[in-house]
Design brief:
- The mean pLDDT is 96.
- The strands form two sheets. Strands 2, 4, 5, 6, 9, 10 and 11 form a seven-stranded mixed sheet that branches. A four-stranded antiparallel sheet has the order 1-3-8-7, with no helix packed on it.
- It is built from no helices and eleven strands.
- Helix content is 0%, strand content 52%.
- The protein has 124 residues and is an all-beta fold.
- The protein is globular and about 40 Å long.
Amino acid sequence: QVQLVESGGGLVQAGGSLRLSCAVSGRTFYRYYMGWFRQAPGKEREFVAAISWSGGTTYYADSVKGRFTISREYAKNTVYLQMNSLKPEDTAVYYCAAVDRSRRYDDADENDYWGQGTQVTVSS
């Protein structure tokens, strides 16, 4: 059974940092993109960042470029999202996702697997 389990969310002041983790199990994701999406109340789920599990190539939404960093650790089967210089508009539920690399990593509808989400709240 495939599982993606997020952790690391919480409440932080504007300008602060958080690191989200996504522990993956149940299959090999070698040919996948691993990504992070977020969804704020009343808004659609939006792409945040993605990484090629095998090659390590990274992709970012313009809104987080230069502030967020996605990475993966083979030994722990874990994907991370380091979030710095957080802003109130970053407040959302953050989801880990996986999609075969033949499909679009930035389209939520294309992703095959999802975690349960973790809440990130940034206060002003």
